[in-house]
Amino acid sequence: MSQDVRLERLLDFLRRSPTPWHATANMARRLEEAGYRRLEETDAWRLAPGERVYVTRNDSSLIALQLPAEPLEALRLIGTHTDSPGLRLKPNPAQSAAGWLQLGVEVYGGALLAPWFDRDLGLAGRVHLRHADGRIEGVLLDIEQPLAIIPSLAIHLDREANNGRAINAQTEMAPVFLQGGDKPDLERLLKRWLAEQHGLEEVELLDFELAFRDMQPPARVGVDGELIASARLDNLLSCFIGLEALLGSDGRQAAVLVANDHEEVGSASACGAQGPFLGDVLRRVNAQLGEPGDEGFIRLIQASRLISCDNAHALHPNFPDKHDAAHGPLLNGGPVIKVNASQRYATNSATAALFRDLCHAVDVPVQSFVTRADMGCGSTIGPITATELGVPTLDVGVPQWAMHSIRETAGAQDVEYLTRVLIAFVNRAELS
């Protein structure tokens, strides 16, 4: 497959995945097109060797499994997350000021707030409703038109605007939505959009989880298209690459793609990495296809390996001093092994050696990242999943700029690099 074809598919996935629920639905759709069978957690599972299956939880987390024809002895796990920092509507968001209906928001995750000003914003998420017959249903909503904006205050009225002034998320971040509108107008518009997108009439709105989205589409940037610029690269880029690797593998080995929600807010939820989702699924699989019992499950996990994929901080040309001098990953320089002595990343020398060997096997350059000793370090699902399961783990990622901004930037070549390495990982017969 050519790099350009893969990148076009990536841009389409990013555009159509404004929320974790949309990303999960789009991944599920591709899995089904590739022959994967959907499982329901409330059903009794009947699994067969050689099958390909997937399951979701909360419609925002997904686990896909490629089951081997041979006895289940080891798993090649790729871990990602579906959520991204941003602005989410409060339950009662309608508020009025200066003749405008505005929508109150909560900040989800560690979002960079300044880039949200003066952006054309759409609205997306899921809505739960009740039909006339009493049936309750949840549906996805994605309004792909500029609906709102958070206008900046003119510099003439704020002479300190360029001097690092703090932004108050409660008082300064409510998007302007409708002139002269009030609360009933929001409900009326939601019902109209439900009718337009789903043909739903005569329904009662019960609840929603909605977020604002940037309407600027994903794009290749640079004279030679060297860059990918988009919202939600952290971490939909890893979700896409992990899915490409799973579907691009030879299908012989036991492999798992897990895409958890709620990483950006700590992973402590039923469908987050700190929750029981992955453990629940793997125990059910092992009970049918592996050595049963606790001992059999522990042996399976210890023979397995997890590559946690979450983007890494690339060396910024305007701020080179923000990196350790010997650990400044470059865009288009290959995937990055992320290391932290305090276990904010799960990498150790044994798991890093496996990844370096994979990169060598497919002729892909590899880089390393360590945070400066005088700066704090973020984390990923890697240490959390390793803690919950005990699986040997490493953290890697594609280098990017502007992490947690409304628009982030990564290298186009790195998409192909990491995909090739993860395909080699999924196809690898021996993991030790």
From TrEMBL:
GO biological process: proteolysis
Molecular function GO labels: aminopeptidase activity; metallopeptidase activity; zinc ion binding
EC number(s) per entry: 3.4.11.-
InterPro entries: Peptidase_M18 (IPR001948), Peptidase_M18_dom2 (IPR023358)
GO cellular component, one term: cytoplasm
Pfam families for the chain: Peptidase_M18
Cofactor: Zn(2+)
SUPFAM superfamilies to which the protein is assigned, alphabetical: Aminopeptidase/glucanase lid domain, Zn-dependent exopeptidases
Alphabetical UniProt keywords: Aminopeptidase, Hydrolase, Metal-binding, Metalloprotease, Protease, Zinc
Superkingdom, taxonomy of origin: Bacteria
Family per record: Belongs to the peptidase M18 family.
PANTHER family tied to this protein: ASPARTYL AMINOPEPTIDASE
Protein name listed in UniProt: M18 family aminopeptidase
Species, as recorded: Halomonas lysinitropha
